[in-house]
Design brief:
Elements (H helix, E strand, L loop, with lengths): L2 H11 L2 H13 L5 H9 L7 H11 L4 H10 L16 H8 L3 H16 L1 H6 L4 H4 L4 H13 L7 H10 L4 H8 L2 E2 L2 E2 L27 H7 L7
Antiparallel strand pairs: 1-2
Length: about 230
């Protein structure tokens, strides 16, 4: 068994988290290995995961004609189905996250939350916690799936929720864990936030805590995460 075959065998037997770490290594062994990734992406095409998101991003950014043809044929907009109960278009958010433009995606996410809340929230450019409570589960799950899928599973509301629960719902500890605060000092927007995958788990998307914790509490307590 040569080095590449050993690598593919290891890929087949390990966890999704470890598979993600192996993808770049597989590609480095030669362009012919794109076929291996294309085949994996087509296996169970309805399944969406951070692993498949990573593979999609690698193929999308490869500047390889076969990969471009393959993605246009099978996944023209991305691998996440963009479901909305309010006919909101999440295609631009998917495009930004595929491109790893996390700062732009973060800003657009807040816009989409205002769209979910309605015209009054759109005009004021932020949402009340009472509006968050009424968000459709379908839409929140779409937004969260997009963030998780295209961040190698590092970002998203459910990731933040897991941390929050693990800390006994202690927001003071959560802000520190997310690196939204250090001691008594809030992290300055945008320059002190980290807009790439070197950020801590759950660092994005952001939520403005200067008005208190009620919006974040409504997001992390939303019934969508009980599904």
């Amino acid at each position: 068994m040569n080095e590449l075959e050993t690598l593919k065998d290891k890929f087949a037997k390990t966890s999704d988290k470890n598979k993600i770490a192996l993808i770049d290594e597989i590609v480095e062994k030669g362009e012919e290995n794109y076929q291996f990734l294309r085949d994996f992406l087509l296996s169970n095409p309805e399944e969406v995961s951070p692993l498949k998101g990573k593979i999609y991003q690698v193929l999308k950014h490869s500047n390889h004609p076969e990969n471009e043809t393959f993605l246009n044929q099978h996944f023209p907009q991305g691998i996440v189905q963009l479901s909305s109960e309010k006919n909101i278009d999440y295609s631009e958010l998917q495009e930004l996250l595929i491109a790893k433009k996390y700062q732009e995606a973060d800003s657009l996410t807040r816009v989409k939350l205002c769209e979910l809340a309605g015209e009054t929230a759109i005009r004021r450019k932020w949402v009340y916690f009472t509006e968050v409570e009424k968000f459709p589960e379908t839409d929140l799950l779409t937004i969260d799936t997009l963030w998780q899928t295209y961040s190698e599973g590092k970002f998203g509301y459910q990731i933040q929720r897991q941390l929050w629960l693990s800390l006994g719902k202690d927001y003071t500890q959560l802000w520190t864990k997310l690196k939204w605060k250090s001691g008594n000092k809030w992290t300055k927007y945008p320059q002190e936030f980290i807009w790439d995958l070197s950020a801590p788990i759950g660092h994005l998307p952001l939520s403005n805590q200067l008005r208190g914790v009620r919006v974040m509490d409504a997001l992390l307590s939303h019934p969508a995460w009980q599904k």
